[in-house]
Amino acid sequence: MKNQKIQWILGGIALLVLPLVLQYFGNAWVRIADLALLYVMLALGLNIVVGYAGLLDLGYVAFYAVGAYMFGLLASPHLTDNFAWFAATFPDGMHISLWLVIPLALVLAACTGVLLGIPVLKLRGDYLAIVTLGFGEIIRIFMNNLDHPVNLTNGPKGIGQIDSVRVFGLDLGRRLELFGYDINSVTLYYYLFLVLVIFTIIICYRLQDSRIGRAWMAIREDEIAAKAMGINTRNMKLLAFGMGASFGGVSGAMFGAFQGFVSPESFSLMESVMIVAMVVLGGIGHLPGVILGAVLLSALPEVLRYVAGPLQAMTDGRLDAAILRQLLIALAMIIVMLLRPRGLWPSPEHGKSLTQKS
Length: 358
Description:
By secondary structure, this protein is mainly alpha-helical. The protein has 16 helices and four strands.
């Protein structure tokens, strides 16, 4: 028990020191760590839907987009420039605080998730995957085309000049000098994202052992048997869609603040596929595995830049570096799935784990 506490303390110190160390190698590495934390939050949210409730969702990036565009619209001059009534009401813009952004993103994305869940309650497997995939594409197409006749999303040009996040008066978009040491903006965002990820992990862990979590797992294993035991499968599915989507909405809002710009290109089908791959690659339904899968698949494409470049030079530029990176990622995933079909860090057998906990 004592050794376990020491390991937790050392792990916490390592996470706190990591961005300060990465700063010496360039802000690009800290930025990779920031995006990895956002993807961890996304993967944990999708794990509620896919891992706990067993509902295959291929349109999860839609909730990511909803959160990002919500923050982009409320924290940029876009609405003031395009709507006279909004400019009259908020002449200086809204510039909402972080403490209002997170609940708004959470509630809006959760409502969107429930709206998606209502028409697909009776669908399972491949049919559910196809419908959710279509939902994700519909959201992206809407964002891409809602620039006329009323310019709501600015279409493919996206929304820029988005405010950075302020925490207790500290602007995370500006460099901070502390005791003569410069802490860059990307490092400040790292600590904010780390706090949000820790809260997400705690919520998911508590859900896993709760009555709701057990009900989701019963639905995943056998929906008919779960219904026969008295579980309201309709409400449980809607709750899974809503709670999973809420984490995606918060992550999207933080992405919009971090980037300072959002556009439909950031929410393509490939993003949804990658988030699903993170959950499957790490280990469906197992929190440490999902986190591992998210970190690997979010950081691997950036690390492979240093491999794809020399390979491109060896072929005299005949092969595109971006295509090579995707090829290497696909090969790595195929090898892992062949060697570890249940994921890199799979959950223990369900029956055994329930016996041990009881």
